[in-house]
TrEMBL record:
Keywords: Hydrolase, Signal. Residues 1-19 form the signal peptide. Residues 231-428 form the SGNH hydrolase-type esterase domain. One of its GO terms (molecular function) is hydrolase activity. Gene3D superfamilies: SGNH hydrolase. The lineage of its organism: Eukaryota, Fungi, Dikarya, Ascomycota, Pezizomycotina. This is SGNH hydrolase-type esterase domain-containing protein. The keyword Signal applies.
């Protein structure tokens, strides 16, 4: 049995703010370098991206990529689109897929010049050093995650944050963690330029790419009523068809709408989607069933989850009736599994219907297009809408379907490939999103669910 005195000693040693009465809590908090504001707040993602094993073609260009090492003696500068504002933030760096240690030498954050995404210039007076449990450096073991110390750094909702990482020794492998579908330009140079107001760019073809490396989440310290909406999705949520450096993916446009209303302004969006991702099979990123532990359940402050995925399962399965029937059975079972597991954390799960992907007969560049796959899409959407598995339904399919040919995207919403919406289509998803679901599920899910 552990005595009360021992517990007291233990709490004293770790500097916990857990106290028997509120009166005493200021004593413990004052030991911290930073005073949480608000005092009763919690951490949530104000930004996140899905960590993936980087495909060879998505590694940085040479000479920042060598055989057996990446980013040796390199400073990497990246810009991230915050969702909610906060007075304090902290950073997470992921080595989830790296097969060697990721030895981070120095990290800083700043606001970018002109508050603009995708550039390497910063507002020099805003630079702040980022530390990890009091140290400037941290060696993140393979498979692991690092969280920074809290930073007194005010961010506004929908603003851009610049994160700069210097890796003196690089990572000695070509298997590293990234999020290729950033749709945002990142920059690098040799040497330590963590605090530089601009990187030294002599060749943008080798010193930049539209990928994010290592950055995994920015957490915001927010009031207890604030929480995040986590999106589990594929390229349509990752923003294929949106504009580079414009942050006009449908989740960004939904965020802009949520920010306009006091009823939804406290909801952050964590976009855990990746192009090509599937529910049932690995490929571009791990299958959704495998990754929800890391990408949903391990994130703090998740208040809602939305599942909008399955098109790549349907589209890559053989178009025979038997294969599609088997896929339907497995996919709907997987939806049930995912919802059951997320419900165990008290989090409601919304289901989005799969948007049309058929193309007219004279357009052959849409490989998913097939009548048997369309039949599966219709059946899966009926399941999402009618089986009662999801806590609410977000009917993206009906928002984007062509009125006369519902198996196809409406031409005004299509990016041109009959699969990914363009920005007008993404705006429509944001405009028609049933935002009442947030109030309806404010209290989470409980009981036998
Ligand atoms: C990076 O180097 C690895 C190992 O030599 C190679 O397989 C990969 O294609 C390279 N990628 C780029 C983008 O240069
Ligand atoms: C910031 O905006 C000003 C005014 O439009 C422009 O002249 C300048 O080049 C911009 N700076 C960067 C780094 O983009
Ligand atoms: C790192 O790069 C800088 C800038 O090119 C260079 O001056 C320095 O010598 C390099 N350091 C090492 C250890 O290679
Ligand atoms: C396909 O046919 C439609 C209707 O006849 C036409 O408007 C369109 O331009 C054609 N597309 C291609 C790729 O040939």
């Amino acid at each position: 049995m552990i005595s009360g005195r021992f517990l007291l000693l233990l709490f004293g040693l770790v500097g916990s703010i857990r106290c028997d009465d509120v009166e005493n809590s200021h004593v413990d908090i004052s030991r911290r370098a930073i005073r949480p504001n608000p005092l009763n707040g919690h951490w949530i993602d104000t930004w996140a991206s899905m960590p993936q094993l980087t495909e060879p073609a998505n590694l940085p260009p040479a000479p920042f990529n060598q055989t057996g090492a990446v980013f040796v003696n390199s400073t990497i500068r990246q810009t991230l689109h915050m969702s909610v504002g906060a007075n304090q933030i902290r950073l997470k760096i992921s080595n989830a897929f790296g097969v060697t240690n990721l030895p981070i030498t120095a990290v800083s954050i700043a606001l970018p010049a002109n508050d603009t995404a995708g550039i390497h210039q910063i507002q020099a007076k805003t630079v702040q050093k980022v530390t990890f449990s009091g140290q400037d450096s941290i060696s993140i073991p393979n498979g692991a995650l690092a969280v920074s110390d809290p930073l007194d750094f005010k961010i506004k909702a929908q603003s851009i944050l610049t994160v700069t990482i210097y890796v003196k020794d690089g990572q000695t492998t070509n298997s590293i963690t990234s999020h290729p579908g950033s749709r945002t330009t990142s920059w690098w140079q040799f040497g330590n330029a963590a605090d530089a107001s601009a990187l030294t760019i002599t060749d943008s073809s080798t010193q930049s790419a539209a990928h994010w490396y290592f950055v995994s989440a920015v957490e915001a310290w927010v009031p207890p009523s604030s929480g995040s909406l986590v999106l589990i999705g594929d390229s349509i949520t990752d923003g294929r068809g949106s504009d580079p450096n414009q942050n006009n993916r449908w989740p960004d446009l939904l965020l802009a709408r949520l920010q306009q209303s006091p009823a939804t302004r406290h909801i952050a969006i964590a976009n855990l989607a990746a192009g090509g991702n599937r529910v049932l099979a690995d490929g571009l990123g791990p299958n959704a069933l495998a990754r929800i532990d890391r990408d949903v359940l391990a994130h703090p402050g998740v208040k809602y989850a939305l599942l909008f995925e399955g098109v790549n399962d349907i589209g890559t399965a053989d178009p025979s009736r038997a294969a599609q029937d088997a896929l339907y059975a497995s996919l709907t079972q997987a939806y049930r599994q995912i919802v059951t597991r997320i419900h165990a954390a008290g989090i409601p799960v919304f289901g989005a219907t799969i948007t049309p992907f058929s193309a007219p007969a004279n357009f052959t560049a849409q490989p998913y297009s097939h009548p048997e796959r369309e039949r599966t899409r219709v059946r899966v959407n009926a399941f999402i809408k009618e089986a009662g598995v999801f806590d609410a339904v977000v009917d993206f399919a009906s928002m984007l379907a062509d009125e006369s040919v519902p198996s196809q995207l409406g031409s005004e919403w299509d990016s041109g490939d009959y699969l990914h919406p363009g920005v007008r289509g993404y705006q429509r998803l944001a405009d028609l999103f049933p935002v009442g679901v947030f109030g309806a599920w404010e209290g989470g899910v409980g009981g036998w669910v």
